[in-house]
Structure formats: structure tokens, C-alpha cells
Amino acid sequence: MCDGETIGGRFQWEKRVSGYNFDLPSKATPEVITERERLADEACRALVRAGIPAYRGNLDEDSGGRPGAHVRVDPLADGGVLVDWNTQGELAAAAVDLLERGVDPSHLPREIRHFETVQTCMRDAVLGILASAGFQVEKADAHSHGNAVQVKAFTH
To answer: What is the spatial distance between Cα 50 and Cα 53, in angstroms, rounded to a whole number?
Structure first.
């Protein structure tokens, strides 16, 4: 079974704003969450069987910089199972450092271009591997989930 490391995200934001009476998105039912957890476990196992380092996690905790495919369940009603690719911390840190210093978007430094290429290539690899293993997958909404893969179902 895949072990768990997790990342922060929308869940942390929800915890912060929930005390201020904002209209928060509705959560999925316990039955839906249980089905998503099963689907996430199967997707994680399929990636590990293919030789991809993969681990399970949740939206409410940090991955601790662990590299590999991070398989997680989004608990919102319109959520699902998402797979993000995490690079080694050194590669991500180099790109973040440059972005924090400010860069010309029309002339991105090699480190940022390389990081983006790795993210795109690994997303496409995860899409292909999971599709071949019998999962219905697609690119997740880039605005909400970046380069994540969304796992819709297991078609056997």
C-alpha cells in the first residue's frame, strides 16, 4: 500500500476562512469520499507497479518535499482524485528562488523552463501510465490544480 505524505492547499484556506461565515464549497458525501479513497489507492498502486515513486496524501498537510507522484483525494463535492508530480526539492527551490527575485516572462531562465518541462513530461507520463493500467484520466483544471492529473474512474 502506498504511504502518506500530504500537501497544503484549498483545505487549509477553507479552515482559515470558515470562521468568517464565507460560503464554502460543499463537501462530498462520506460514500463518495470512500470511493475516491479506493480509487486513489488503486491509482497509487498502479504507478508503483510501473516503477514510478508514488505515495498517498491529503490536501490538508504538507508533502515535506518528498519527490514522486503525490496521489490525493479532494474532499469537495466537485473534487476527485488528483495526482501531482513533486520534483526533488533542489529543482523546485531553484525555480522558486528565481521567480521570487522576479523574471521577465518572455525570457524565462533555464532553471524555470527545465522545472516546467519536467512537470509537463511527468504529468503526461502519469496520464499515459494510468490510462494504460485501465483508469479514466485527464488533465486537471490548470487554474485550480496546475499540472495535476485527475483520475475519474477505474475501467478495469
So the answer is: 9
Taking only the tens place, the pLDDT of each residue in 96-151 is 777 777 877 777 888 888 988 999 999 999 999 999 999 999 999 888 888 899 99
**134 φψ region: left (φ > 0), alpha (ψ -120 to 50), beta (else):** left
Pairing of strands 135-139, 68-73: unpaired
Question: Collapsing DSSP states into helix, strand and coil, what is residue 56?
Answer: strand
CA distance 139 to 151: 9
Q: What is the DSSP letter of 59?
A: T
SS3 156: coil
Cβ-based neighbours of 128, under 8 Å, separated by 6 or more = none
